[in-house]
Amino acid sequence: MRKLRYAMVGGGQGAFIGGVHRKAMALDGQMELVAGALSSSPDKALASGRELGLADDRNHACWQDLLDDELRRPTGERIDFVSIVTPNHMHYPVAKAFVDVGINVVCDKPLVHTSAQAQDLIEAAAKSGVVFAVTYNYTGYPLVRQARHMVRSGELGEIRKVIIEYNQGWLSTLLEGSGNKQADWRTDPARSGIAGCIGDIGSHAENLAATITGLEIDALCADLTTFVSGRKLDDDGNLLLRYTNGARGILISSQIEIGCENDLRIRIFGTQGSLTWQQENPNRLWHAPLDAPPRLFTRGSPWLCAEAIKATRLPAGHPEAFFEAFANIYAGAGEAIRARHERRSPAHLEADFPTLQDGARGVRFIEKTVESAHSTAKWTPF
Amino acid sequence: MRKLRYAMVGGGQGAFIGGVHRKAMALDGQMELVAGALSSSPDKALASGRELGLADDRNHACWQDLLDDELRRPTGERIDFVSIVTPNHMHYPVAKAFVDVGINVVCDKPLVHTSAQAQDLIEAAAKSGVVFAVTYNYTGYPLVRQARHMVRSGELGEIRKVIIEYNQGWLSTLLEGSGNKQADWRTDPARSGIAGCIGDIGSHAENLAATITGLEIDALCADLTTFVSGRKLDDDGNLLLRYTNGARGILISSQIEIGCENDLRIRIFGTQGSLTWQQENPNRLWHAPLDAPPRLFTRGSPWLCAEAIKATRLPAGHPEAFFEAFANIYAGAGEAIRARHERRSPAHLEADFPTLQDGARGVRFIEKTVESAHSTAKWTPF
Amino acid sequence: MRKLRYAMVGGGQGAFIGGVHRKAMALDGQMELVAGALSSSPDKALASGRELGLADDRNHACWQDLLDDELRRPTGERIDFVSIVTPNHMHYPVAKAFVDVGINVVCDKPLVHTSAQAQDLIEAAAKSGVVFAVTYNYTGYPLVRQARHMVRSGELGEIRKVIIEYNQGWLSTLLEGSGNKQADWRTDPARSGIAGCIGDIGSHAENLAATITGLEIDALCADLTTFVSGRKLDDDGNLLLRYTNGARGILISSQIEIGCENDLRIRIFGTQGSLTWQQENPNRLWHAPLDAPPRLFTRGSPWLCAEAIKATRLPAGHPEAFFEAFANIYAGAGEAIRARHERRSPAHLEADFPTLQDGARGVRFIEKTVESAHSTAKWTPF
Amino acid sequence: MRKLRYAMVGGGQGAFIGGVHRKAMALDGQMELVAGALSSSPDKALASGRELGLADDRNHACWQDLLDDELRRPTGERIDFVSIVTPNHMHYPVAKAFVDVGINVVCDKPLVHTSAQAQDLIEAAAKSGVVFAVTYNYTGYPLVRQARHMVRSGELGEIRKVIIEYNQGWLSTLLEGSGNKQADWRTDPARSGIAGCIGDIGSHAENLAATITGLEIDALCADLTTFVSGRKLDDDGNLLLRYTNGARGILISSQIEIGCENDLRIRIFGTQGSLTWQQENPNRLWHAPLDAPPRLFTRGSPWLCAEAIKATRLPAGHPEAFFEAFANIYAGAGEAIRARHERRSPAHLEADFPTLQDGARGVRFIEKTVESAHSTAKWTPF
Questions:
Q1: What is the CATH number of domain A141-311+361-381?
Q2: How much is the ipTM here?
Q3: Mutation site for B-interface testing, chosen from D295, D297, D299, D305 by largest number of B Cβ within 10 Å
C-alpha cells in the first residue's frame, strides 16, 4: 500500500500544532509530507520547508503557489490531500481553494469563522466530491469510541444529562504580547474569530459530547467572561444546555483555571447507567450501571467494541495518548481518501473521523454561544 | 466539664439523620440525650424514646409536651439545647417555639420553607439571645476549614471562579411510594418545600461555597428538571452564578446521576491559585499555586491552619469522615452554648458552626433558584 | 438494652490510643466508662480520671487497685469488661489478672511480648471463660469484611499471592527523646518488645492478611533494618512469605518512608481474580475478575455481603473511617460479652472481632520475623 | 539533517515489539527503515518486508544475507544502524556480527542469555567503536528522567529504600501453546533464557531502579515461582535487595497478578524525601519532601529539569505515553550515532539511552536471581 502524499499549509517554525499533525501522521508510516507552504511569512515558509526536507520545487512561499504547482503536476505526482494547520482565519480561504479543485482536505478546528463560510464549504465539497476531515482530535481516543458505542447502542438507556468540561489555566495571566505565539493568535479576534476560550477549547468540548451522544442542542444559555485585564476575547465560558430529547447539559470551558492543564472531561448520565472519561488519563473509562458496581474499562481490553480495538496500537497497560488519538483521525481520513481514489465505499470501521458537518456545527456553537452571552433571554435557540 | 443535656425532636425509628446526629454528639462524650419527642407519630415517638433509654418522664409523644415539660423543670435540670431533626416542614414551628422561650437550638437544614420564616427566627433569636446552629455538616470537615482559611487569608488571590457540584444518583428511579421513607418525604412538597434536589442537596452546595469563599451571589440562572416520571419536585438542577465581586460560578446538583453516591465537590480558582476538595475522600485538599507544582494537603498534617487542626481527632493517615465532621458542628455549637451559660464570649477558634444567617441565606437560595427556573430572563437578582 | 460498663487501664493524659478507644466505644452509645486506672503514674492516673468524669471511688491510682475494687463490688455494679490500652509491656500482667478473675478483656495489640505469655493467656481465658478481644482495628472496616467474604467464599479461586504493605514515614528522623511520647515508648525495647516497626505496624499487616485470606504462613524470610542512627529497634522490615497452600507473600512495613502517613494496603491475587484495598481510602475495594473489567465496591452498596452491611452505619458516599472501624471491633466484642452474660451463643454475624488466637499468632509473627532477620538461612519455618 | 537509515532484524508479521520500534522511530521523522531480515522464517521475512515497502534488494530472507549485503554497499548507502527485535536467543549472534563489522546496534532487552555473552559484546563494541543501545524503553519517560535528576542531585538525601514493582496478569492461565505467539516464546527456555517473568519484566524493573538511583546491588534474596501448571519458566518473582550504600530494596515482578496490565512502578525513599511513579499514568511524578506537603510534578511543567523537558514533545496536559518514551531512547541513540559519524562527542543532554553496561548488568541480575532462587542461603552476593 503506497503512502499517501500530503502538503501542509501552516505549521512552520515556532508553530505548535503543525508539528503535532506531522508526528501523528508519521506514527503509522502511511503518509508522507511532500509539499508545503508552511508559514504566512514567505521567508519563514521556505526555511521551514527546507528544515523538513522538502524538495525545493515543492517548498512554497505561499499557499497559492502551492496550489498552482500541484495543479500543474500530473495526477500520479500530485498530493493526495492538504493538511491545513494555520490560525483559524486562514482555514476558510485555503480550504475553499483546495476543495474547489477537488483536492482532499484535513483542516484544524474550529473550521471557519462563520456559519456562512461553513455552509459554503459543505456545498463546495459536495460538488467536488472531496474528502474533508476536521481534526477534532480528542474523538480519536479509543475509549471515546467505546463511549460512543455504548451510548449509541443503548447501554446507558435514554440520556438525561451531560457534563462536559474543558479546564485549562495557562491563560490566567496576560500571556499575549509577551512573545508567546500561541497566546498571541488565540486571543486576537482577527485570527481567532469572535470567541477566545469558547472557540479554542469550548468547541472541542461541544464536539466530544456530540460525537459520543449524538444528542442535538435545542437551546443554550451562556455566560462568557474575560477575566484577564487587557485581553480582547473571552477566557472563560459556562453554559447550560438543553437537548432536543429533553436531556440537560452543562458545558464548562476555561483558560484561567490555575492548576488545570488540558483537562477535558465528560460525564454522561442515562436512565440505565453513566460513563466518565478524562483526557489527561485517557486509557480509562468508567461505566456505572444502574444496579451493579461501577466498572473500569481500560484501553486494550478484549471486552471493548470493535471501533475501540481498531483504534488501538498497544496492549493494555502500555499507555497510548495524544499523538495516537490524533493519528487515528488521520488514519480515518486516509481510509476515506484511499476509498475515493479506488472509487469504492470506505470501510465503515476505518473511515472514522470528524466531518464538515461536525465542523459546521462547531462554528454554529460558537456563534450561538456568543449570541447567548449578549442576550438577556435565558435560552437562545440553537 | 459537665456534659450538655439535649432533647431531640424527630429522629425516631426508621429515621436516618437523627441517628447520625446522636452518634456525632456521642463521639466526643460532651453531650447526652436526656429528653425527646422522637416522632410525629405519638406511639412511635414513645417507643423510640424507650429504645434510646430515655426516662419515661422525659419521653414525650409530641414536641409541645416536651417543651411544656422542660419549662416546668428547674434550670439545673433543663436541657441545654434541642436538636431538631424532623422533615423540613416541622423545622419552623418547633424552632420558633424553643427560641421564643430561650432554649438553644440545633436544627437540620434547609432551615425553613420561606425567607419570611427565616427572618422571623432571626428576630426571635436576637430577642431571646439563644444560640442557634444549622447543621450544614459538610463545613465541619477539617480540610473545608483549611480551604476557608486559605481563601480568606488571600492565598488564592482574588477569586474568579467557583465550581460546586453535588452529584447523587439514588433517585434515578421512582423510589418514593415504594417504602423508602427518605425518598418519600424528600420528594413531597408538603414536607420538603418548594424544591426537591436543589433544596435537599443544592443548599449544601451553596453553603459550602459561601462558607469557604465568603462570596455573595449577585444573580443566578437556574435550570431545574424533574427527570423521573411521577415525581413531584425537581431531581436535577444546574445553575450559573454571578458573584458581587465579579466571580463566576457553576452549581451542579443532581439526584439522577447514576454512579454518584454523595459526591459533593468544590473547585475554587483565584488569581494566585486554586483549591479542589471532594467530600467522598475528605482527608485530601489540593492546592495548585500559580507558579509551582500542585501540592496535596492531608488532614492531620502539621502545616495546616489552627482551625483545621482544632477540628482533627486523629493523626494523618488515620482517616476521619462524615461523623467526625458532623461532630465538629456540634462541638462548635456546644462551645457557644457553654459560653452563653457562662456569660462569656465563645472562644473564636472553637465556636465554629453555621448560623441562622447561613440558614436564611440557604432558604433564599432555594427560593431564588426556583424563581429563576420559572423565569425567561437570564439573570434573577439575588 | 443497658449499656456495657467498662474500665480502662492506660489511656490517660498525653496518651493517644486510649482516647481513640473511648471515642470508638462512645459512637454507638452501647458502652460507658465507669472506672479506670488511666496511667502508670498515680497522679496522672487520678487527674485523667477526674477529667473524664469518673466517680472518685472508681478512679484509681493503679490497675491493681482498680481490680481489687471491682472484686469488692456486687455483680450488678461491676464492670462488664476492661479495656487495656497501655504500652505493650503492661498488656500481659494486666490482662492475666483480669482474665484470672473472670473479667472480660479488650486489649490493644500486639498482645504480649512472648509466645509463652500468649499461650498462658489462652489457657487462662479457656479456664475462666472470659471474652477476650484484641483490637486489630483495621479488620473492622466493612470492606475488609467484604474482602474476607469474597476470599473465603472462593470468588478469587485459589489464592496465589498476597502483597501487604504498611507504609509510614513519621519515624524517618530521631523523634524519640524529643518529647514525642508515642515515639518514645514505641522505640523502647523495654516497653515495645523485641521489635519496633515490625511489632507496631507489621503485626497489623500480618493480621489483616490472615483475617482476609485465612492462609497460614509456612515460612518467612525477613530483612529488618534500623535506618535512623541512635534508634534501638528496627524501623523498616521487609519479608518474603510462603504460605502452606503454596501461595507467596510479600510484607512491607516501614516507618521511614517519607510521604507515607498510615498507608496500610493489601492486594490478594487468586486464580480467578484479585482484590485491592487501602486503609487511607477505606470506602473502596477493587475487584478484578479473571475475564471481565475490574469493578469497584463501595461501602454501603446493596450488593455487599451481610458482614459488610452489618458493619456500616451510613449510606454509600457518606464516608466512614477509622473510628467507625474501631467501633465495629468493640461492637463485636460487646455482643460476645452480652451473650456470655445471657448464657447464650453470640450471634455469628455480630460477634466479629480478633481473638486471643489472632493475638498469639501476631506475637509469633514478631518472634519469627526477628529470628529470621538474624538468620543466614533463607527460610525460617513458622 | 538527513534521516538515519536503519535495518531491522525480527519484527515481521505476527510480532509485537518490532512494530512498536518502527512506530517509535517514525514519530520524530529522523529515521527510515531501508533494509530488513524481518523473521527467522525466510518466507515470512520476505513477505513482511514487502508489506513494509522495502526495496527487493534490501529485503532479506535471513540476517546473514542482510549483513553481507550491507557490507557490499558503499558507505553512503549503508545503514546507520541495525535494530534487533528478535526473541532473546537471537540477540547475541546478530548483535555480535554487526558490532564486529562496526555497524551500530540498537537491541531489545534482555540483552543476551549469559554474562559471558554480554562481556563479549562489551569487548567487541569497545574494539569496533560502535554505538550500542539497549531498549529499556521505560527509562525514556520524561518523568523517569526527572526522578533520576532529583535523586542524583541529592534532593532526596541519602537513599534508604527502593520498592520496585512490575505487576502483570496476562499469564495467569496457560496461554502458551494456544496460539499466542508472545506467550509462546516468552515462556520457552530455548528462546527466552533461564528466566521467564524475571527476565521479561523483572529486568525492566531492575533497570528502572538502577537508572534512577544509581545504587548498586550488593546482595539479593529471591523467591521465584511457577504458578501455572505446565509452564516451564517462573511466572512470579519476589526479591529482597541490599544495596552497597546500605539501602534496602524490594522487587516484585509477576505475570499472574490478575487485574494488573503493565503496572511498572517505583517508590524511592531517602532521608530528605521520596518519589513515586507509575508507568500506566506516566505523566505524573509525586515528590514528598520531609517537611512539606507532597507535590505533583506533571510532564511538560516549566519547573522540570532539562533532561525531562528535552524528552517532551507536547505541552502539559496533552498526555504522552509509551511510544514517545520509546522514541526518546531512539532519539538518544540517534544522537550518539550522528556524533560518531561526525567524529564528535555526543551532546550530553541528548545522547541519553541505556547502554551495553545496562544490558550486561541486567543479564547478571537475571543470573543472580535464578541462583538465589535455588539457594538455601538468604543472601546471594551480586
A1: 3.30.360.10
A2: 0.96
A3: D295
